[in-house]
UniProtKB/TrEMBL annotation:
This is TIR domain-containing protein. Pfam families: TIR. InterPro entries: TIR_dom (IPR000157), Toll_tir_struct_dom_sf (IPR035897). SMART domains: TIR. Keywords: NAD. It comes from the Eukaryota. Residues 13-172 form the TIR domain. GO terms for biological process: signal transduction.
Length: 189
């Protein structure tokens, strides 16, 4: 199946990139611009647009997208840790990365310091105060995932001037992602 805007063929449902983000924080601004830049570059990108009711279990469709993707981009924001859905999604992403050495996780820190993610301080500490009351064991798993993700090399948008956000999208898409995505027509040559 050929995706709109892409000349590459791929099996139906296989994604190059999965975007993980807290919709309430970044859906209508940063993540929307990033998604548009990826799609315009011909990169088959999954984002959860369904606004499904958030429970503890992530959807089978999302799990499949994560498992089959080459890259997961995790957009951390101030409210990310308050969402059990986002935290469960992050655990799934890192489990796939750790099982499949070819899968890449790229964190983007949007209005949050990477150390807040890594150490669960600031708004992340407040979220975990609530989580640990109800989900003691699960909170340990989430903390471990946040620490691992916070230690990955990524981008801290707080260190970029607002005028450079659009050039960031272009550099992320043009340089970093395309080098990781293999054109299926080149395989078996």
């Amino acid at each position: 199946m050929t995706e709109p805007g892409s000349s590459r063929s791929r099996p139906k449902g296989a994604y190059d990139v999965v975007l993980s983000f807290r919709g309430k924080d970044t859906r209508k601004n940063f993540t929307d611009h990033l998604y548009t830049a990826l799609v315009q570059a011909g990169i088959h990108t999954f984002r959860d647009d369904n606004e499904l009711p958030r429970g503890e279990e992530i959807s089978k469709h999302l799990v499949k997208a994560i498992q089959e993707s080459k890259i997961s981009i995790v957009v951390f924001s101030k409210g990310y840790a308050s969402s059990r859905w986002c935290l469960n999604e992050l655990v799934q992403i890192l489990e796939c990365k750790n099982r499949n050495t070819n899968q890449i996780v790229l964190p983007i820190f949007c209005d949050i310091d990477p150390s807040d993610v890594r150490k669960q301080t600031g708004s992340f500490a407040k979220a975990f105060d609530k989580h640990e009351e109800q989900f003691k064991e699960k909170a340990k798993e989430w903390r471990k995932a946040l620490e691992e993700a916070g230690n990955l090399s990524g981008w801290n948008l707080n260190e970029m001037a607002n005028g450079y956000a659009f050039s960031f999208y272009g550099s992320l898409v043009g340089i970093n992602l395309k080098s990781f995505i293999i054109n299926p027509r080149l395989v078996n040559l």
